[in-house]
Amino acid sequence: MEPDTVAPAEVAEDAEVMASVEEGQTETLVIADISQDDAYMTLPLCDAASLPEWR
Fold first, then answer.
1. How far apart are CA 23 and CA 33, in angstroms?
2. pTM for the complete prediction?
3. Is residue 40 exposed (0-12), middle (13-18) or buried (19+ Cβ within 10 Å)?
4. C-alpha angle 40/31/50, rounded to 5°?
5. Residue 3's pLDDT band (cuts 50, 70, 90)
């Protein structure tokens, strides 16, 4: 049986990634690579994984 693994993604050495929480009717988590145009993703903050969940 082969292990269920994911190949590591290639990451640019000069990438600058940041995250922020946008407040409004719903709090939204925004993750963006500011070294690229239009390279961002958003999701409701309540759907984002907490740091302990990522471990």
1. 20
2. 0.63
3. middle
4. 145
5. low
Residue 45 pLDDT class (50, 70, 90 cuts): very high
Pull the structure tokens for residue 22: 């946008």
Instruction: Select from 47, 1, 43 the least CA-distant residue to 19.
Output: 43
3-state class (DSSP) for residue 47 = helix
In this prediction, residue 29 carries a pLDDT of 93
Rounded CA separation 50/37 (Å): 27
Query: Is the dihedral angle over the CA atoms 27, 33, 35, 39 positive or is it negative?
Result: negative
Contact 35, 18 (CB under 8 A): no
Amino acid at position 31, single letter: I
